[in-house]
Write a structure and sequence with these properties.
mainly beta, 30 strands, five-stranded antiparallel sheet, Tachylectin-2, Chain A, about 475 residues, 2 domains, about 0% helix, Jelly Rolls
Length: about 475
């Protein structure tokens, strides 16, 4: 049996960006809940022409939102896709789901989660759930914001929501975009509006945010009593007044009230093309996690590495710094990403779809129970986990797998895919129908802090098995 390790593409060790390489994800929005960051992303998926060649992303068929989460900001758990729009989605009245925004609020003593999305550029919908990963329902059965909503009649694009629940429990939604004919410098298409206490209704009239050279991508965060409205500037290629935002950059305004008045400052994040050599639209979200500020944004780094940078975007993370006077420093987007903020415990059950780095694998959702699992596992593929804490040692490794016709082996290596071998777990080939099973093997040599690599071996050009979860035993 020939064996050769497959290569990671897009996200390579020790880099943290893009945050995952087993899927695309655009227009990221962050929700922090119970020591985890959840990233909700437009579910970019490859489109093909009649010859099977990947074509430019039209966004027209995107009706799902992807969700990943992490407690350490380097290893990310893939929760799959939320079916949002269309006949199979929660919001059957909608045709697309772009640019999500998510928020948590306690209502009547219960945790409630709300997911806002753009139905192309014609309106904004909302879903609700009792969990950050669903299941989700459409609580109102129609759009939350349409052109009939007071104050939005002249907004070119009704999309790209951001949402804030203030310290007093009041909710606000920020949205809009587009450039009316000839109105590059002052498009007047950014809006803010009050949300009802139920978070699924709007109150009063939407108010204009006078954002210079506004294009799209509302963002909102609050720090030390200051409200920061952030957005992407338009791509007008003519002369701009001094102090105006350059094309395709993230700019910010501030206010001491959630609905303004607003003061323009400057841009803080250049277009992705400046950092990664592949330009496109610019979309971001700013959030705080464990008293540190971060910015999530997208760039076509994964698709570029795959040779198909045709508008297929991936989420990235970098630190964001506020100065003492409240101003924001320029952000340096890069492949390095952010530091891992806590070690991963191998002694608790870990979903196999928790991935730091990977080669070859993808994920899917099991239809009946809705569990996420790793699939398309072939000979030479692998999953890498960053900063695994083996301080208690390890005597055994247990894994839940679904045997297929191929079968194979999971090899456990430390620090690199070909590093110290600490254990091998045979996975028998299925003899009849596929079935899920729990398998266990002895482990030797796991001690201290290491990156962990799960390397898959088996018959070449055959799907070996599906992988559900794993755990080490002290």
């Amino acid at each position: 049996m020939t064996f050769q390790l497959n290569q990671a593409i897009g996200k390579v060790t020790p880099n943290g960006n893009p945050v995952v390489a087993n899927r695309y994800g655009a227009d990221p929005y962050a929700l922090v809940f119970e020591d985890r960051v959840y990233l909700y992303m437009t579910n970019d998926a490859l489109e093909y022409d009649e010859n099977g060649v990947v074509k430019e992303n039209t966004y027209g068929s995107i009706n799902k939102i992807a969700v990943i989460s992490s407690s350490d900001l380097v290893n990310w758990t893939d929760h799959g896709e939320i079916a949002v729009a269309g006949p199979e989605g929660a919001a059957k009245w909608a045709t697309q789901s772009w640019a999500p925004a998510a928020i948590h609020k306690v209502i009547d003593g219960k945790d409630k989660f709300f997911l806002y999305f753009a139905n192309n550029a014609s309106g904004i919908g909302v879903l609700s759930s009792d969990s950050p990963v669903g299941p989700w329902i459409d609580p109102i059965g129609e759009a939350l914001i349409l052109r009939s909503t007071p104050g939005v009649e002249d907004v070119t694009w009704l999309f790209d929501p951001a949402v804030l629940v203030d310290d007093d429990g009041k909710g606000y939604i920020y949205f809009g975009g587009g450039v009316p004919e000839g109105e590059y410098a002052e498009p007047g298409t950014a809006r803010v509006m009050k949300l009802g206490d139920d978070m699924t209704s709007v109150v009063g009239t939407a108010e204009v945010i006078p954002a210079p050279f506004m294009f799209e991508d509302a963002g909102i965060h609050k720090r030390e009593g200051v409200y920061y409205y952030t957005y992407c500037s338009n791509f007008y290629d003519g002369e701009r007044p001094e102090g105006s935002p350059p094309a395709g950059e993230i700019a910010y305004m501030t206010s001491d009230k959630p609905m303004g008045p607003w003061t323009y400052h400057e841009t803080i994040l250049k277009n992705p093309g400046h950092f990664f050599g592949v330009s496109g639209n610019n979309h971001h979200a700013i959030f705080e996690f464990h008293e540190v500020w971060y910015i999530a944004y997208h760039a076509q780094t994964l698709s570029k590495a795959q040779g198909i940078a045709n508008g297929y975007r991936s989420t990235h993370l970098n630190r964001l710094f506020h100065n003492d006077d409240g101003s924001i420093q320029d952000i340096e987007a890069d492949y390095k990403g952010v530091q891992q903020i806590k070690y991963l415990s191998p002694y608790q059950r870990v979903q196999a779809a928790t991935i730091g780095w990977s080669a070859g694998v993808t994920t899917e959702t099991e239809e009946v129970l809705g569990a996420r699992r790793v699939t398309e596992i072939e000979n030479g593929d692998w999953i890498g986990l960053s900063g695994v804490d083996f301080s208690k040692g390890a005597a055994a490794f247990s894994a839940s797998v679904i045997s297929l016709e191929g079968g194979g082996t999971i090899e456990l290596h430390l620090d690199e895919p070909s590093g110290l071998l600490i254990g091998e777990l045979p996975v028998p080939a299925a003899n009849g129908p596929d079935k899920q099973m729990e398998l266990k093997t002895e482990v030797r040599g796991a001690k201290g802090i290491h990156d962990l690599y799960l390397v898959f071996k088996g018959k070449p050009e055959t799907e070996l098995f599906k992988f559900v979860s794993w755990q080490f035993i002290e």
